[in-house]
Amino acid sequence: MGAQPLAGSSWSGRGRRWLPLFCGALAVRLLYWAFVHPGWIPDSDADQYVQLARNLAGGRGFSLQYPQLEVHPTAFRPPLYPALLAPGAWLAGDALWPARLLQAVIGSGTAVLAGVLAARVGGRRAGVIATALVAVYPPLLANDTVTLTEPLGLGLVLAALLLVDDERWVAAGLAGGLLLLTRPNAYLAIAVLAVWAARTIGWRRGLGLAAVAGLVLVPWLVRNQIQVGTWKSTTSDGFTMSAVYGLPAQRVGHFIDPTEAPEYHDDHHILARFDEAEWNDMLMDEAIEAVKANPGYVGDVLWENVGGYFELAPSLNTYPEVSDGRHMGFRRATLPLFWVVTIIGVTGIVTHRRHRLIQVTALLTAQFTVLSLLLVAPPRLRGPFDVMCCIGAGLALSHLWAVVGGRTVVSDVTMVTTEGDSARTMRS
User: Fold this and answer.
1) Which of 55, 95, 144, 246 sits 20 to 30 Å CA-CA off 412?
2) What φ, ψ does residue 303 adopt, rounded to 5°?
3) How many other C-beta atoms are found inside a 10 Å radius of the C-beta of residue 171?
4) With bands split at pLDDT 50, 70 and 90, how would you rate the model's confidence at 406?
5) Are 34 and 141 a contacting pair, CB within 8 Å?
6) Are strands 72-73 and 63-64 parallel, antiparallel or unpaired?
7) What is the mean pLDDT of the chain?
8) pTM of whole model > 0.85?
9) Angle at Cα 65 formed by Cα 60 and Cα 69, nearest 5°?
10) Helix (H/G/I), strand (E/B), else coil: 3
11) CA–CA separation, 113 vs 95, rounded Å?
């Protein structure tokens, strides 16, 4: 008999217990919106998502002016997040409040999912503390009232992970497919989840998870082939690679936007932009050749990104923070909290390193972190690491609470052995 959740462990039942924490997290985000950053105006990536949503709402399909000079069908950005923003754009026109409200709701849901994971490892108190930390942690809070995909991506990763733990591999595959429609760099994350599912609930279900995720992605790939001329899920990977590793970027030693840098204003590059797929492939090929000619530059990028990602050189983050819509005064005032949460969080993760949920969470976090460090690493892309640290801090502080109070920490995961198989009761 396979492992089955026991009675009373339904998501709906557990969800009601977490509703007050969700409301608390939402209240914090609304307060941040109202008092810290009420006048935010989208720029760069955030503006592109808004424009995509408005074009969808206006009946122009999934289209964007960037990187061309006219509105055209695009695959430069993944589709799920703009599709979620589109109803608000249809209802409110150019007003941003529906998008910011949706972002706050998504971020609050992510806080709860992080708490649920912590509760399954270290008990309900750990879950409550982890949720509270995610709810108020400035680096995460700053993402949750601007139009960027990180909160949605984090929520889908956590949802897929928890669904695998519940042995709901089909639902986990659906969440994984939606993740691929949100974060195109999540292929390795899906592989990690599929392997974990294969090891814990059987290889057929692991393969099934990957297959379901792939099936969710297929319509988008077919659409891209028909309208954009590529089977790829995105046409922005060449842009990113060229901006980081292209010869112009190597000459100046930092990120160079291929649409703005004079080095890319020759007829060859400008004309290629009118065929998005061709432009993407051209930039990717140029970047690969540049790396082959100077492989040591990868180490230079990695070293600099480590400095910004882990706040060893906070000044490196000034431009990306401004571009991403962060309130710089708030950032400077709260920056020391990063080190506090990171130190406590890593301690909690190390202490609970034998728990399989912590192991897979750390592995997922590591692959997202490495990808960021090898390409671009603004603080907003540090979300998986920050959430993991909040989970770890919840575990560590809960344990400390119990030790100080002279009590034993009891996990919300009770193991029941029957005929050699394990059935789990998850009361989180």
Assistant:
1) 144
2) -65, -45
3) 18
4) low
5) no
6) antiparallel
7) 90
8) yes
9) 130
10) coil
11) 29
